[in-house]
Amino acid sequence: MSDQPEQSATALKYDGAGAPIIIAKGHGQLAADIIALAREHGVLIHEDAELSRLLSQLQLGDQIPKALYLIIAELIAFSYVLQGKFPENWHNIHQRIDLKA
C-alpha cells in the first residue's frame, strides 16, 4: 500500500470575463487522463497539492471563490508570459524577461 495520496486534477477555464470555472475534475485514473489530455493539447499544468485540495471541493461549473482569485490570477498571468503573450501596453519596465530568447 502506498503512502502517497491519490492523484487528483482540476481543470479551469478562463474566458477573460468573470472568474475561472471548474470544467473537469477527478481522482486516480480520471485525474491521470485529464492531465494527459491537457498535455496533448499544450495546456500548461501547475502542480500544487494544497491548491488541488481546495479546488477539488468545488463542483463542475462552479466559479473559483474570491479567496483563490489572487493565486489563480498569478498562475494565469504566468502562463501567458510562458507562452510569450503580453498586454499591448506592457513595456518590460524592469527588463526581467528577455523577449528575444
UniProtKB/TrEMBL annotation:
Belongs to the type III secretion exporter family. It comes from Alishewanella maricola. Keywords: Bacterial flagellum protein export, Protein transport, Transport. This is Flagellar biosynthetic protein FlhB. PANTHER family: FLAGELLAR BIOSYNTHETIC PROTEIN FLHB. It comes from the Bacteria. SUPFAM superfamilies: EscU C-terminal domain-like. Required for formation of the rod structure in the basal body of the flagellar apparatus. Together with FliI and FliH, may constitute the export apparatus of flagellin.
